[in-house]
């Protein structure tokens, strides 16, 4: 298929681009490079530097490249930033996605795979989380992703677009060959921050909240390897192409690890010790987010294969220790 990947120069998008290429798809990347990295896009892939807000330009790109499917990753994704500066989340995520959807509608693209999040569930009533549980985001980021899911459902109903929204739990890790990995500016995600601390690039790792109702008082998350996520995107594309109905799938390992667990595992995997500090809670963080991901396993045969926390941290460590400054300067 001809696939357009928005945000294909970003973290999850770039890993998915490689998975799509390995499956024989023709891939075009559309990215405004506001947060993505040119070097994350393989040489043989056409990179179009454009913004999803430009409906006419995006429609022309879709038509000219005869795009069958759009995979939509282009979004801001930081919980803390979304609480401090909601306007950029509504503009980039909600308005941007509306514009992209309108271009998709006008160009008659058949399929869309959307990069959604477990944050749509907010603070769940029970765990693990199944797809039918209530939506009640506790942060602006999750709210914007929920609004986009609703737009997709409405466009699907009205115009026949077929889509899957993938609700990621905590994406982590890096390509096993060390070619691409996670590089955000500023970095806010737990594993890269821990590893930068292990490398001596940061003074300490702060634990945001030690009074949560969890066994060790720190937040529990379900970490899923980015290459397992990428594989899921290829599988749902085949599912849609084979006539699968539009729907949502959780993507997680079904195992929860606390912030303290992750710090201890990182110390073992890296063989380094580093300073850990306790800090207040971060706004908008639910205590526990663990996926039930039986639905996608059953329907598409997806299985996470690199998502033990040891493998996730080892792959991430391989990337970070060889790219101390991310994509800018390899050392
Ligand atoms: N976290 C932390 N210290 C940090 C960064 C994150 O304690 O420096 C915690 C955060 O509060 C959350 C978990 O680690 O409970 C995962 O956070 P991250 O930002 O990686 O992902 P999120 O769950 O927000 O998508």
TrEMBL record:
Pathway: Carbohydrate metabolism; galactose metabolism. InterPro entries: Epimerase_deHydtase (IPR001509), NAD(P)-bd_dom_sf (IPR036291), UDP_G4E (IPR005886). Pfam families: Epimerase. One of its GO terms (molecular function) is UDP-glucose 4-epimerase activity. Its cofactor is NAD(+). Residues 3-252 form the NAD-dependent epimerase/dehydratase domain. Coiled coil: none annotated. It is an enzyme of class 5 (isomerase). Keywords: Carbohydrate metabolism, Galactose metabolism, Isomerase, NAD. One of its GO terms (biological process) is galactose catabolic process via UDP-galactose, Leloir pathway. It catalyses: UDP-alpha-D-glucose = UDP-alpha-D-galactose. Its EC number is 5.1.3.2. Homodimer. Belongs to the NAD(P)-dependent epimerase/dehydratase family. This is UDP-glucose 4-epimerase.
């Amino acid at each position: 298929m001809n696939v357009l990947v928005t945000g294909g120069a970003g973290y999850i998008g770039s890993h998915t681009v490689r998975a799509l290429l390995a499956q024989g798809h023709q891939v075009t990347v559309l990215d405004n490079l506001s947060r993505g990295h040119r070097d994350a896009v393989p040489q043989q892939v056409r990179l179009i530097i454009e913004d999803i807000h430009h409906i006419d330009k995006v429609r022309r790109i879709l038509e000219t490249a005869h795009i069958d499917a759009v995979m939509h990753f282009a979004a801001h994704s930081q919980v803390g930033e979304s609480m401090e500066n909601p306007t950029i989340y509504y503009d980039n995520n909600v308005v941007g996605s509306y514009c992209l959807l309108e271009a998709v509608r006008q160009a008659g693209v058949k399929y869309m795979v959307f990069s959604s999040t477990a944050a749509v569930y907010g603070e769940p009533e029970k765990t693990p989380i199944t797809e039918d549980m209530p939506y009640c985001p506790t942060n602006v980021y999750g709210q914007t992703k929920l609004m986009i899911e609703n737009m997709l459902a409405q466009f699907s109903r009205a115009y026949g677009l077929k889509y899957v929204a993938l609700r990621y739990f905590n994406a982590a890790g890096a390509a096993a060959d060390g070619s691409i990995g996670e590089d955000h500016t500023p970095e806010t995600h737990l594993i890269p921050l821990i590893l930068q601390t292990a490398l001596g690039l940061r003074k300490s790792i702060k634990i945001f909240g030690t009074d949560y109702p969890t066994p060790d008082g720190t937040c529990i998350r379900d970490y899923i390897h980015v290459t397992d996520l990428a594989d899921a995107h290829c599988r749902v594309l085949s599912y849609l192409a084979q006539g699968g109905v539009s729907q949502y799938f959780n993507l997680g390992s079904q195992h929860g690890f606390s912030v303290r667990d992750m710090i201890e595992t990182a110390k073992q995997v890296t063989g380094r010790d580093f300073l850990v500090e306790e800090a207040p809670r971060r706004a908008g963080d639910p205590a526990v987010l663990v996926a039930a991901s039986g639905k996608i396993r059953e329907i598409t045969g997806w299985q996470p294969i690199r998502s033990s926390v040891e493998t996730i941290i080892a792959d991430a460590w391989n990337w970070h220790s060889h790219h101390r400054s991310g994509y800018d300067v390899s050392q």
